[in-house]
Design goal:
This protein has about 80 residues and is mostly helical. It contains four helices and no strands. The longest helix is centred in the first third of the chain and has 10 residues. The structure holds iron/sulfur cluster (SF4) (2 copies).
């Protein structure tokens, strides 16, 4: 099931992507789609450095059975 792009899910994402070092160091908020990558797709920012990922702990990841994390860099695999 696809993750819905809703304000409620964005609030949850902020709690997990927000403090992530990959998010902060690459300034992903400045580039589309900003956040909620599991719903919106990967960042358009090129040459991101990977510094860890909080997606596996995120309740959206658990609710929708997403695996792998790093959704700012590549989309979740379809079930
Ligand atoms: S799974 Fe990752 S990208 Fe999706 S809402 Fe959670 S922290 Fe954000
Ligand atoms: S998708 Fe994962 S790696 Fe990317 S910013 Fe969010 S928590 Fe960090």
């Amino acid at each position: 099931m696809k993750v819905p792009d809703t304000p409620e899910n964005m609030e949850i994402c902020k709690q997990f992507c927000g403090p992530c070092q990959t998010f902060r160091e690459n300034k992903l908020m400045d580039v589309e789609p900003h956040a909620l990558f599991c719903a919106r797709g990967p960042t358009k920012k090129a040459d991101c450095v990977s510094k860890g990922c909080n997606c596996p702990e995120c309740e959206i990841s658990k609710k929708y059975g997403l695996t792998g994390g790093w959704f700012c860099l590549h989309p979740p695999k379809e079930e």
